[in-house]
Sequence to fold (143 residues):
Amino acid sequence: MQTAFTPWASLSGGVLIGLSATMLMLVLGRVMGATGILAGLLRPQSAEDFAWRATLLAGMVTAPLAVRLVTGDMPSLQFPTSTAALVLGGVIVGLGVTYGAGCTSGHGVCGMARLSLRSIVATVTFMVFTFATVFVTRHMIGG
Fold:
């Protein structure tokens, strides 16, 4: 399996994520963890709480349209695996988010920026298991 390396797209995406996380913290004093934002949307504390969460998630969902406006093409999505593997991966990620009390965006982007020891440990754990998963699926199973 070949992996496409996209340094400019990756860099610009990282800059936009960092900028949006910083703006959310500066403007609303909130941490930009995607799973926490989604969970709070399902049980908002107030109309204002619902509004900012819905707006942020709408931006995440409609971002491909912005890419199309800028480039003229929709982003290409390729899943070099089966639907069953995607569903299994989603379940595993969901369990990890639950037991890890947050996701990579909350811990990796925001928590590490705040030098949170819990977030640093969580992010290192995410990365170790990511490396192990890629190694096993590509070199041991042969995916």
